[in-house]
Design brief:
It is built from five helices and four strands. The chain has helices at residues 32-53, 74-89, 93-100, 104-110, 119-128; strands spanning 2-9, 15-18, 26-29, 68-71. A four-stranded antiparallel sheet has the order 3-2-1-4, with helices on one face. Helix 2 (74-89) runs parallel beside helix 5 (119-128).
Length: 138
């Protein structure tokens, strides 16, 4: 999953980074390289707010000329898909836990962006909600 980002050079030479798909994600860096390093962290931090508020996370649109694509690791993007699917199907964490035959605390960790969850565990959750995860090498 790659989100298009705008890098705007400021008069002082620093760069401000914004994402049109995730407007809450804003960061900056003294150099272009530093701004690029900060961009992924800002994007994931903004996604945390969506998880906390139980709001659907906008999926990335296609990049346009002048934008740079910022990668979201598969460990995070799989959880984004899971959150969006749970909201779409109106499935709570308690209900997902029942479907998975797991304690609710384990599901709480599955939908926590900062918890290191095995991709197979997220895939299992997606499957019980009717989706078939696939890995595509591009």
């Amino acid at each position: 999953m790659f989100y298009p980002a705008n890098f705007i050079k400021e008069p002082d030479g620093s760069y401000v980074v914004t994402f049109r798909d995730i407007p809450e994600a804003i960061t900056q860096g003294d150099t272009l390289e530093e701004a690029k390093d900060m961009a992924q962290d800002a994007l994931i931090t903004a996604m945390d707010f969506y998880f906390e508020d139980e709001r659907s996370i906008p999926l990335p649109s296609k990049g346009v000329k002048g934008e740079e694509l910022i990668e979201v690791p598969i460990s995070i993007s799989s959880k984004v898909y899971l959150l969006n699917l749970m909201l779409e199907k109106k499935v709570t964490q308690v209900e997902l836990a029942k479907l998975l035959h797991k304690p609710k605390q384990e599901v709480t960790r599955i939908v926590n962006l900062h918890h290191a969850t095995k991709i197979d565990t997220v895939a299992e959750a997606l499957k019980v909600l009717g989706k078939t995860p696939q890995l595509v090498i591009a």
